[in-house]
Amino acid sequence: MHTASRTTRAGAGFTLLEMVFTVVVLAALAKFAMMKLVTPATMTLPTQAQSLADLIRRAQSLATVRGQRMSVSVATSGANGRVAIACASGTMPCDTDTSFTVGQGAVVGSASTIYFNSLGQPVDSASAALASDASFTLSYQTGDNTATYTVTVAALTGRVSVSP
């Protein structure tokens, strides 16, 4: 009689192992479904914006370390565009020129070239302090949705920030 009540009780519910297995399978399916809903470009857009910010910070560092003006400009605008660092004209040698190319169909845009003086401060082409913040934008469009990240260089301090 004692064994009969035990088997009846065991068949009435789920074991802990069954519940854990079900939750793990549902979580894996949910992650797979989310991957199908989000495109690779929108997933990598924040990372690409951080890489662009790192490139701008590198230009600041090079200007400070070398004691010469450096520029950051959009070498190729549009989809899969390229942003490049270069020494400003008349400041040779410059063997550390580098660039960053966005991928996954992201679009890069900018208003103008940003220069950094030997103190790492952002200046215009005439070496005058910037009147307003300078920015680069990265965007990606899927259907009706557009994701945009802006990399901003503060005019007075040269602080580089990324914002969605």
Notes on the structure:
With 164 residues, the chain is an alpha+beta fold. It has two domains: 2-36, no CATH class; 40-163, minor pseudopilin epsh fold (3-Layer(bab) Sandwich). Helix content is 35%, strand content 30%. The strands form two sheets. The chain has a five-stranded antiparallel beta sheet, covered by helices on one side. A hairpin with a 5-residue loop joins strand 6 (114-116) and strand 7. The chain is elongated, with a radius of gyration of 26 Å. The relative contact order is 0.16. The mean pLDDT is 82.
Topology at a glance:
Elements: H1 2-10, H2 16-37, H3 40-66, E1 70-76, E2 78-79, E3 82-87, E4 98-101, E5 107-110, E6 114-116, E7 122-123, E8 134-142, E9 145-153, E10 160-163
Antiparallel strand pairs: 1-3, 1-6, 2-5, 3-4, 5-8, 6-7, 8-9, 9-10
Descriptors:
164 residues; alpha+beta; minor pseudopilin epsh fold; 2 domains; 5-stranded antiparallel sheet; 3 helices; 10 strands; 35% helix; elongated
CATH class of the largest domain: Alpha Beta
- Summarize the helix and strand pattern as letters: HHHEEEEEEEEEE
What is the spatial order of strands in the main beta sheet? 4-3-1-6-7
Q: Summarize the biggest pleated sheet.
A: 5 strands, antiparallel
User: What's the CATH H-level homologous superfamily of the largest domain?
Assistant: minor pseudopilin epsh domain
Can you summarize this structure?
The protein has 164 residues and is an alpha+beta fold. The chain has helices at 2-10, 16-37, 40-66, and strands spanning 70-76, 78-79, 82-87, 98-101, 107-110, 114-116, 122-123, 134-142, 145-153, 160-163.
